[in-house]
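Translate sequence into structure tokens.
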Amino acid sequence: MPMQDNGEIARVENLSKTYVMGVVTVQALRGISLSISSGEYIAVMGPSGCGKSTLLNILGCLDRPSGGQYFLGGEDVSRLDDDHLSEIRSTRLGFVFQSYNLIQQLSVVENIEVPLYYQGVDEEESRRRAVEFATRVGLESRLDHRPFELSGGQQQRVAIARALVNDPLIILADEPTGNLDSASGKEILRLLNELHDSGKTVIMVTHSEEISERAGRIVRLLDGEVEHDLVR
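Result follows.
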């Protein structure tokens, strides 16, 4: 299906997700439909257990829906196998997690290179791009440091550089400031603002009303459904 003329970059239709845990069945998402345009900055909000992270995991091809469809860049990715989903994650999506998810044995520049390794980019080009993006987030003097030698804010900047290095269609951030002090958190949010201003599509899960005000659109979930979808 071709991308829509309004610049639509992703769309979910009647999306549902059910988890079966023993004798208990949990409906995490219940028939969600959303259209996401290129260049949007979206905050996904709602109380704990409302389905925020589940939705982000499906948008990030880390999980599959139980029902409905997910179109990314015009392609229905809802039922692709693990190999195809892995390829999409490495080429079209960038992730920023609350817990950074860096590889402790690798240096800053090597962590940033990880998505390029899975794309088969040659070593020289991979290193050039990793250094470029480390510099963009202000870590050019820390290229050889390991994650344990960095502050939380610096580790999250590594994660942002890693998310950017493959020039993704969408940057997905799950509570990206949740483990940071207020000063570091503001710095990370400033970087995300800059990315959006440069034309990137950003989808961020947050519980903070203050942080959500940075977004141009707020999607609020309740009990696995869209309660509000407000364009500001």
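Note: The radius of gyration is 18 Å.
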